[in-house]
Amino acid sequence: MTSDRSHHSDTILAHAGRKPADFGGVVNTPVVRASTIIYPDLEAYRASRSVKFGSLRYGRYGTQTAMALVEAMTELEGGDGAVLHPSGLASIAMTLRSLLSPGDHLLVADSVYAPTRAFCDGQLALQGIEVSYYDPAIGASIDRQFRPNTRVVFAESPGSLTFDMQDIPALSSACRPREIALVVDGTWATPLFCRPLSLGADVVIHSATKYIVGHSDAMLGVAVARDPWRLMLEKFAALNGIIAGPDDCWLALRGLRSMGARLRQHQHCAMRLTSWLDGHPAVARILYPAHPGHPGHSIWRRDFTGASGLFGVELAPCSSDNVDRFIDALSLFGIGSSWGGYESLVLPSSPMRTIGGQTFAGPLVRLHAGLEHPDDLIADLEQALSLLDSTKQHGQESRHGK
Ligand SMILES: *Cc1c(COP(=O)(O)O)cnc(C)c1O
Question: CA 20 to 30 Å from 74, out of 49, 348, 379, 401?
Fold first, then answer.
């Protein structure tokens, strides 16, 4: 079942990548598990060698389940193709490896997801790739950071933990004339709320582990790209034997079908929580691009059509013991890594910056607004934040055992 680009994202989410006629009318593309593919004769076998991705050849290049997800993600982002990886971090690492060789220079946003930074510093830099960091607010002046060997600019908008917004069209206008690949980690917005390729990016990466799978039960990464970058990503995946399993692809396809409805509810919930938190005496600042006071709010309004459920809060200055006490007192917010599932989460956060940027007087926490009723989440936050009030903090026991 194909859907055309003129359809709204919700319609694409319902139809993209589905081929009921190929599976006896079954609505969803099934989990097709395969290693060997049997051919009727040697001629057919030999003919199959010329194409790796996009046709059924050998399990390592994906079966119909992976192909359905590739088709859906390509259509949602408006790219020329997509490559699947076993996690979001693998998508980031393999994309950068595909596009960079020893001697090349890579520019990375200073607000990037911490494991991305660890990969660049701990792997790429050791293998002779020059890595430097730039201020996420740099925009078109990124060209002043270019070196003759700059090949890739890596952006993430909004950035992890601090939610700095990046001007993707401005970065693109600097990169395009130099044929520098602009790679964007678009996990926070999903293709529903932002389509970086349409803003001038060359590759967009998603940790599908988050909203695309959407239920905290699979690890998966997707890189959607324009040509010729897409071909470089495919070649690298083929040479390295990198593949996402069909069960995980199926979970991502299932997740996509309801992603529009889920994301609007995450957005509604995050909006309610952030506006309630704003102005609370224990809260100094809200880090959420959809929040009117956010420094990147105008970029968000220009380039995004919505906001997801992940945001940060800067608390009024208090001890780290008090932050721990507040977090332990929450009963509806789970304590754990990752986000993008149906459940609310909380963690303390300490952004790592090497070139300055926003400074924070109070401690930061990161919250994920799940699909619970916002009134219940607000009541939970209210009782836990009351522990930060110094007049009450000694008299109350925190609740444990979530
Ligand atoms: C979680 C995350 C990743 C990594 O994805 P995994 O699937 O956990 O490997 C990459 N980028 C961002 C912005 C993330 O939040």
Answer: 49
State the chain's mean pLDDT as an integer: 94
pTM given for the model: 0.95
User: Cβ(219) to ligand 1 under 6 A?
Assistant: yes
pLDDT of residue 143: 97
Q: Of 100-104, 176-180, 224-228, 384-388, which gets the smallest average pLDDT?
A: 384-388
Residues 6+ apart with CB under 8 A from 48: 37, 39, 55, 57
pLDDT of residue 238 exceeding 60: yes
CA angle 278/280/282 to nearest 5° reads 115
Give the model confidence (pLDDT) of 10-28 as tens digits: 999 999 999 999 999 999 9
User: Which residue type occupies 235?
Assistant: K
Residues sharing a CB contact under 8 Å with residue 399, sequence separation 6 or more, in sequence order: 328, 329, 331
Q: Report the sign of the C-alpha dihedral through residues 172, 176, 182, 184, in that order.
A: positive
Percent of the chain with pLDDT over 90: 90
Contacts 24+ apart (CB under 8 A), 126-132: 127/102, 128/102, 128/103, 129/100, 129/101, 129/102, 129/103, 129/104, 129/105, 130/104, 130/105, 130/106, 131/105, 131/106, 132/105, 132/106, 132/107, 132/108
Q: Ligand 1: which residue has its CA nearest to atom 7? A: 88
Rounded CA gap, 99 and 233, in Å? 8
Q: Which residue has the tokens 């393999």?
A: 94
Active site residues: 60, 113, 185, 210
Rounded Cα distance, 344 and 334, in Å: 6
DSSP 8-state symbol, 196: G
Q: 3-state DSSP call for residue 368?
A: strand
**Angle at the Cα of 75 (from 70 to 80), degrees rounded to 5?**
75
Is the CB–ligand 1 distance for residue 277 below 6 Å?
A: no
Whether ligand 1 lies within 6 angstroms of the CB of 187 is answered as yes
Q: pLDDT confidence of 401, banded at 50, 70, 90?
A: very low
Reported as a single tens digit per residue, the pLDDT across 288-340 is: 999 999 999 999 999 999 999 999 999 999 999 999 999 999 999 999 999 99
Segment 121-126 mean pLDDT: 96
Whether 309 and 364 have beta carbons less than 8 Å apart is answered as no
Distance 387 CA to ligand 1 centre (A): 32
